[in-house]
Design a protein that fits this description.
This protein is an all-alpha fold and about 130 residues long. The chain has eight helices and no strands.
Length: about 130
Amino acid sequence: MIEQVGLRGDVDAHNHAMALPIREVVCELVGLLGASDVAALAGVKETRAVQQWMEDREPQRPHLLRFALQLVSMIAATGEKSTAQAWLHGANPGLGGQSPLALFRSRPLDEIQRPLLSSARTFAARAL
C-alpha cells in the first residue's frame, strides 16, 4: 500500500515544520523516515533518545530536526514516504556525490542548509 503524503511546497513545508511543537516534529520524522534515520540525522547513537523526544525530552538540535522535516516533507509530497528515505540515503550529484544524511551527520547546519534545500527543491520538482 502506498502511503500518500499531503503536497507541500517550500513555504508550506517550512511553515509547517516551524509551527509544530518539537515533539510532533520528531513524530512526523519518525513516521516518514523511521527512528533509526532520525537518530542518525540528529547525531545520536540510540533510537531510545528519539523515543524520549517524542514523549517528554527536548532534543539537543531541534533546529536541525525542524529543517529535516521541512526537506523530507517536500520530498515525500511526491507520493510515497519511501521516496524521502531514498533521497536521504542516496548519493546526490548536486551535493558532490554525498548523501543528504552524510551531510547532516558531518557538517554544521549553517554550511549545509542552502545546498540541501536546493537539492530537495530540485528533486521534488522533478518527481511531481
